[in-house]
Amino acid sequence: MDIRAIRETLYRWIFAILAFAALVFLVGIILTLLKESWPFFARYSIFKALLGHSWYPTAEPPEFGMLPLIAASVAVTAGAMVVCVPIGIGSALFLHELAGHRLRAVLKPTIEILAGIPSIVFGFFGMLIVAPFLQNLFGIPTGLNAFTASLVLGLMAVPTVSSLAEDALSFVPKSFREASLAVGANRWQTLTRVVVPAAGSGISTAIILGMSRAVGETMTVLMVAGGAAMIPRSIFDPVRPMTSTIAAEMGEAVTGSPHYHALFALGLILFLITLCFNILAEIVSRRFRLKLGLGR
Amino acid sequence: MTRARINEVLGFTLLWLCMAFCLFFLGAILYFIVVRGAPAITWEFLTEVPRRSMTQGGVAPAIAGTFYLTLGAMLLAFPLGLASAIYLCEYSPKNASLNIIRLSINNLAGVPSVVFGLFGLALFVKAFGFGVSILSGALTLGIMALPGIISASQEALTAVPQSYREASLALGASHWQTIKKVVLPSALPGILTGVILAVGRVAGETAPILFTAATFYTRDYPTSPFSEVMALPYHIYALMTEGTRPEQQTPIAYGCALILLALVLTISAVAIVVRQRQRRSYGT
């Protein structure tokens, strides 16, 4: 074997090994979360933790009922979806159907700019501008609550949903549209009854990934959601989702204390939720690509 | 007008409104941050250390901290990300490993930022003993940026026409020579724009550095990779939630938000413009 062939093989191996970095990090994250949350699950029953109503991690004895935190995450994420699904898909349809070449060339980067704004800036804006505005508008005791968090979070997730949904729409073959117009349907009928159903699972992927982003978002909810660890009774109650609990309490939790391990357990639950969303998105999008004959 | 026509008009109006709402929201954020942040920006604000427990002086150490963290993250993520993309696109392994790697990248991209923070805390800060430091924060941010860099590099590599590779191989160049001399140079602008976009994202991240790198109050610039740092995004958070003088801290926070926003948006705007030029360059 000459020197060149050896070098070729060597490079191939180096790249192959480095390519597994993503896998190594993912497995590392899973192992770390398991290892650090294990002491918590060894001491407290999983069911009690998941269904417990009171989260008093610094009381004596501490109580680690995670239901208020999980309920808060679910409530805020659901609220965010109510905002971002119509607006995200609406703006994607606008870009696909109504915007001309010029307008698209301006609007697509603009949406991308919205996606590039750091979450801390969204949180800051929500805290100082949106919250006081809504407080006055509805005459409620505090603007920092589940409703405001949902609104800001939903608007944050719009670019994710919008750009993925627009991609899905652009994969629909032109012939579908032409066939529909040719049999006399107007543009709106074509869009809602032919193009959108054909892109359906691609749009679902966009929604699932938007949800995954919303449930894992930290800084915005930390600053805007109000931070009370109670099961919300109205949409204007302050809440404390899982992400903001971890972010707010890890700083003061003593390393190795039950509180420390409980926060890792929350992290593990959060990780598993987003993992499910991502796998679901993967399955749906694969089906979509097969349906339109796009291969992988 | 027929009913179908009325529906069409109504529907299209609704789509216009959705788009207009996005633009309105973006406009509102930019307007408030710029108008309220601008008065805080002075030469002193950008170049001096904070004074009187964060109520006066500048935020220069926070700007420097964000710079170091971002630089460190890129030093990790860029070589790894590029190598992964080269393997996936150029060597295109036809077996299970391709699927496994692709799945891990997708799932790594979906991990919540605060979970990266937990990972960095347990591994780099505690287990490796790096402490709360630039090093721990940069490693955490680098891992977080990896999936983005891989997909951007992949996009750039697949955009290189197949004929370039075939021409090079036909001239007798080896596989590696083709990658190094032909594929990488023509994909380079695309790869770099991906990296620039990732820089913009990393610079604005807060949750991963909360427990791995950031501190609210230092009067000094960091001296080694093992010192804890101030960082712009964390500084905004800390000014709003800690300290005792909100009326003096809020204007400073607006100033920080404006600097961060200007930094991140300039970086992304440059990347977006360059990428649009690049996409046209192969005539697609």
Short description, anyone?
The complex is a heterodimer of chains A (296) and B (284). With 296 residues, chain A is an all-alpha fold. Chain A contains 13 helices and 2 strands, in the order αααββαααααααααα.
Task: Give a description of the structure.
The complex is a heterodimer of chains A (296) and B (284). With 296 residues, chain A is mainly alpha-helical. Chain A has a domain at 67-242: MetI-like (MetI-like fold). Chain A contains 13 helices and two strands, in the order αααββαααααααααα. In chain A, strands 1-2 form a two-stranded antiparallel ribbon. In chain A, strand 1 (55-56) and strand 2 (63-64) form a beta hairpin. By secondary structure, chain B is an all-alpha fold. Chain B has a single domain (61-281), classed as MetI-like fold. Chain B has eleven helices and two strands, in the order H-H-E-E-H-H-H-H-H-H-H-H-H. In chain B, helix 3 (60-91) packs across helix 6. The relative contact order of chain B is 0.15. Chains A and B meet through helix 1, helix 2, helix 4, helix 5 and helix 6 of A and helix 1, helix 3, helix 4, helix 5 and helix 6 of B.
